[in-house]
């Protein structure tokens, strides 16, 4: 749970700075957020969560 909240905060900050630098339009940001929301409710959510967990567990071992 803590990892999920951290990743949401990081991606939220990246999105915020992209919007402030005009590298990303509000329409594109809305589309990306919607895509992520709907992707989380599909069968792809489990493999994505497993991949994220594996990468985060591997970082301390580098």
Question: What does this protein look like?
Answer:
- Helices cover 77% and strands 0% of the residues.
- It is mostly helical and 62 residues long.
- It has one domain (2-61).
- It is flat and about 35 Å long.
- The mean pLDDT is 79.
Which features does this protein show?
62 residues; mainly alpha
Number of strands: 0
C-alpha termini separation: 23 Å
Computed CA radius of gyration, to the nearest angstrom: 14 Å
Structural class: mainly alpha
Strand content: under 5%
Helical run tally = 3
Describe the sheet with the most strands: none
Task: Write the H/E string, N to C.
Answer: HHH
In short:
The protein is mostly helical and 62 residues long.
Topology of helices and strands:
Elements: H1 2-20, H2 26-40, H3 45-58
